[in-house]
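ok so i was messing around last nite and threw this chain in just to see what happens. nothing serious, just curious
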Amino acid sequence: MEQLRSWIKERYPVPVAVYSTPAAEALLATAGLCVVDFLRPLCLVNQLSVPMRVGEFSCRVQELQLGLYPGHSMYQPKPEVIDESLTQVLSVQAHRHAKLQALPDLVHYVQSESPEAVNPWYFKYQHRFVRLLKFTDHETLDHPVAGLFVMPADTSHPLQVAAKLLAPEQQLPLHATDSMLPIKDPMFAKHFVLLQDKAAGMEDGKALSNLATLSNTYGTANCSILKLYSSSNKGGAGAAAAAVTASGAVPAAVFQACRSAVVPGGGAGEPEHWLPEPPGGLGQALSPDDMAAAGQLLKNFCERTLLPRLEERIARLNLSVSTARKGLKNRLTRLWKGAAGDSGPPQDVSYPWHSVEAQMRCLADLAFLLGQYEFAVQMYRLAAQDYLAAPNSKWYAGAEVRGCQQLIGPTPAERAQVCSPVSRSLCSACNSSPLGKTVC
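result:
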């Protein structure tokens, strides 16, 4: 049970889109990294102490797991690409773990060995399968709630660069279906980052001037400077890189562990291809000081931009949902309409982000991501009634994720009592999904 709870929390981080200019990407390209590569090892942000109100519940956020993705990669690959990628996983795992000798006692082996030993291929397959199915219009838990907009600190016209990063052509494929909050909406948390390459001689005065310019437009709390290569000169695999290695460089495995396999055409939260690894390994010439600065950046982003904006967004969504769906009058109206009308054939349509159906799901998702599972369950149940009455099987199945909350939220003493409700929730989701009906 604990392993399942840990997997659920890992599966649903707070999604954040990262948009960066080519010049900003070039600053890290010499280390074999993109901006997302550099920040991903630091996505678990702790030592927070941010008071928040979620619905009628008050909490203090002390830790937050971020999911950082390149903005242009947040879409689902084509079905044939997904099938090919999953087949490749099975082929590789079969070649690695296949055994020709027969087991004398299969039942005893299955009962005595760990799941990893019995099915060593499954967890690799599960990870790839879940990742490739992200970013659909109805899986709103994967929709980004914030964005990091990155540019060099010595750019000549920071406001023009920021405007280009926010331009319509930067929009995600999800915006084409009107299922996601627009990036320019005030409720979409935005944080602007100026990358200052100390080894290249970027002046502090220019960086501070650009920071002031951005802060005057977007707010001081939403703008930061991130200094790179502060402990060395960028020298590839030469003397400078060797000096950093001698003084304690960041191991390449730190960055490699945060990468996932790419697929043709990109998507699923990864680029189409990774940058070639430099002679000094991934992250060459980067120091622990650079990583500490990046960690502080993400902490400031959570404390000053992300969590305050999410609290405001939750308050607005709760007011809208309460006006439209809560209260005795609204409940009686819904019961009367449900009894008077025929639900009709399934309508697996995508609800626009500003509809009350989408707002209920969004409110539940935000509460779930912030660990307020009791309030999230209430909202999922409220939304599920609308989706079931429509009927909209995809959205209804998504709302049945409340089974996950029942696994995460209760205390260990109470957890044994929720097995039956969890089973009902998961079976209901499986039976209501068009795909689930073929496999359940």
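not much to say yet. Residues 187 and 312 are 8 Å apart (CA to CA).
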